[in-house]
Amino acid sequence: QDNSFEQFIINYCNEKLQQIFIELTLKEEQEEYIREGIEWTHIEYFNNAIICDLIENNQTGILAMLDEECLRPGTVTDDTFLEKLNQVCATHQHFESRMSKCSRFLNDTSLPHSCFRIQHYAGKVMYQVEGFVDKNNDLLYRDLSQAMWKANHSLIKALFPEGNPAKINLKRPPTAGSQFKASVATLMKNLQTKNPNYIRCIKPNDKKAAHIFNDALVCHQIRYLGLLENVRVRRAGYAFRQPYEPCLERYKMLCKQTWPHWRGPARAGVEVLFNELRIPEEEFSFGRSKIFIRNPRTLFKLEDLRKQRLEDLATLIGKIYRGWKCRTHFLLMKKCQVVIASWYRRYS
């Protein structure tokens, strides 16, 4: 019931994961259609970048304010940290506090004076400010790192690389929030180099019980996970896209004009191929560098035709090989018969 620093940084990580989900499935998807010159009506969606900026901005973010309080000389408490947040984030649309100068929150009795509330993408979350400064200041000092690095056990030494005397850093050890922010940034950089697949889990009830389906809870999750916008983009968009060269290379055996070699541009070859196969025009679109196929069934049809064609080609290759082998054997037998006959006539 009481959310503290730990839940705050967990929710920050969730915000970053939601952001990369938006980037890869909603923003990038629609930008690719525009970039490829495909006719497209933009579908609106909520971009949570503004929430991530509220937390991680290097000057005005909550983590930056927390680090600043931890480094500031003088009396530092959780209340002074909250006062600083109220000064910097008071007008932010996703930040709420009873101490805020924004009068619309002064009469909000559901929000205690020692708390602040953030409007996350998944809904509003209230955080108890008590303990934020101490937990963020949970530092591992250099002498402790150096002592652990001198251990004989290789695993312990590997866990404390900053204790290596060759890497002595006179800077103050990073705070817990800074370390977590750096870890999240590394994770995001790693994910952006991959081709991720998403599995969205829906919790049917809060009781962890079988055969109970809470409609309101499920609808809330579908709404804040961005599934509605994702479905709208997928239904209006194209299920499959591929550059012209690999597409032509994969399916060129389905058309006599493109098989075995197509001498012209790859896009022209794909156009000839699709016209030959009589695929309906509404099922595909030609982009600047890619072919876009709307429905999976069209792709399945191409794959089935390709599979059948490969079987036919395999049969043709086998037939030609067997014919060549039999003809070679026949010619050898014929040559032997001529030699034998000539020698027989010579001695007869």
UniProtKB/TrEMBL annotation:
One cellular component term from this protein's GO annotations in UniProt: myosin complex
Protein's UniProt keywords contain Repeat: yes
Domain (Myosin motor) ranges: 1-307
Keywords of the record: Actin-binding, ATP-binding, Calmodulin-binding, Motor protein, Myosin, Nucleotide-binding, Repeat
Nucleotide-binding found in the keyword field: yes
Molecular function per GO: actin filament binding; ATP binding; calmodulin binding; microfilament motor activity
Origin superkingdom: Eukaryota
GO biological process, one term: actin filament-based movement
Region (Actin-binding): 184-206
PROSITE patterns listed in its UniProt record: MYOSIN_MOTOR
Family: Belongs to the TRAFAC class myosin-kinesin ATPase superfamily. Myosin family.
PANTHER family xrefs: MYOSIN (PTHR13140), UNCONVENTIONAL MYOSIN-IB (PTHR13140:SF277)
Protein name, entry field: MYO1B protein
